[in-house]
Structures are given as C-alpha cells and as structure tokens.
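We store chain and fold; thus.
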Amino acid sequence: MTRRKIVIRRIENMGKRQATFCKRRSGLLKKAQELAILCDVQVAVIVFSSTGRLYEYASSTTTTTTTTTTSMAMASILEKYRSAQEQQQLLNPVSQLMEAYGGETIKLKSQRLVFVGTSVGEELTPY
C-alpha cells in the first residue's frame, strides 16, 4: 500500500481532524525530542488544541540525574529566547531606523521629480 499525497487544508470531519491532530502532535513532539538528543540543542514546542488544551515539550538543559520538569526547562528556554531577541535588537539599531523611516523613504521616492523638458520654464513630472 502506497501513501498518497494529501492536500493541506482544514479537515472538515471532526473525528478525522481529531485523529490527525493526535497523530501529528505526537509525531511533532517526538521529532523535537530526537532533534534535542541528536544535535544537543535546546528545543521548546508549544501546541494549543482547538479546544484550548496545552501540549508542550521542552528539552532539559542538563543531562544530570536531577529531575528537570518541563515547565522549568520551558521557562529557561523562553528566557534565553527573550534575551537573544533583546540582544539582537541592541546589536542592530540600523535596521530599526530603516524600519522606522522605511515609509518616509518610499513616500519621498514616489514624490521625486525629474525634469523632462529642455528649457527652464517647462513643467516637472513625477519620475
């Protein structure tokens, strides 16, 4: 039996949607765990079901015998993420300025005028 290609869109049948969610959720969490173990990286996955139920996985930061709860590992990874975001914003102030003035630049470019005629009294037209 071969697998067939599926179209990625919302599954209308509620029973099939729930079954697919359960299978794919467990597959996603398994892949996250494999990635953390094989590549020695920190991984955090947060999934909310359509009913609002929370499913999460966070790789522990240490491999000691002390038990690290998922919530402690998740908090550690999220804090590391926040500090990395702040650090990147501090290191790249030029991009922030470009974003802030990006709209002004486009506006000025659209208003740029080019002289079309050859004599001094002729009209200017937008570029």
Summary: The CA atoms of residues 116 and 122 lie 8 Å apart. The two ends are 62 Å apart (CA to CA).
